[in-house]
Specification:
It is built from 5 helices and 8 strands, in the order ββααβββαβαββα. It is an alpha+beta fold. An 8-stranded mixed β-sheet has the order 1-2-3-4-5-6-8-7, sandwiched between helices. α3 packs antiparallel against α5. It is globular.
Length: about 200
């Protein structure tokens, strides 16, 4: 039995369902909205790479270290982007949240906060995780602000940690949230959502 079992999560018009090859066209459209693969500090696939991207995610699911979701508008069934649990370590009940990207038109909306709230609630509630982590490029300041807005704490920077798509070597900024910090973070996220989106 896998630590992360297939599950569909939904709230506030956002649905997270297990990523599948059937989401390929939707992810191509999402990546094309803003030509996201051209951004140096992200790993968004180019349109011709989306199928391989999904296949890699599915392989990670089979191997037990990654579980990817398609992020979908629950009313229109439009694919808005994707996000994953990754670096899953059942022995210490730890997951990280990453491989997250959205169509440009969905950025700075309630979508990311809603998706993260669903993933965090599932991680700390259903999976009984002790820690949830995040990592991002040291030059991806937008991602760092978004992670900090969730209530995560900065653990530090791993220098010379990974290759970017352009062949340069990045430093990786690491964040985490412990289970004891979740109730306060959840209250803040719900407050932020209430300011922008009526409950559905």
């Amino acid at each position: 039995m896998a630590f992360v079992e297939p599950v569909t999560l939904r709230d506030r018009g956002v649905r997270l369902e297990p990523l599948a090859l059937s989401h390929e066209a939707g992810l191509i459209a999402a990546a094309t909205d803003g030509e996201l693969w051209k951004i140096r500090v992200t790993s968004v696939p180019a349109p011709q790479e989306v199928r391989s991207y999904i296949e890699t995610a599915l392989l990670g699911r089979d191997q037990g270290h990654r579980f990817a979701f398609a992020v979908i508008d629950d009313e229109t069934d439009k694919v808005l982007g994707t996000t994953s649990y990754h670096d899953i370590v059942p022995a210490i009940r730890r997951v990280e949240i990453g491989y997250t990207w959205y169509a440009k038109s969905m950025q700075r909306t309630h979508v990311n906060t809603s998706a993260k709230l669903l993933l965090l609630a599932h991680a700390f509630g259903t999976l009984a995780c002790h820690v949830v982590g995040w990592r991002t490029d040291n030059f991806n300041f937008a991602s760092q602000r978004a992670i900090e807005r969730l209530g995560a704490k900065k653990d530090g920077v791993i220098r010379g940690h990974a290759l970017r798509r352009d062949g340069t070597i990045r430093d990786t900024v690491m964040y985490s949230m412990r289970s004891g910090e979740w109730p306060e973070a959840r209250a803040q996220l719900l407050y932020l959502l209430e300011q922008h989106v009526p409950a559905k």
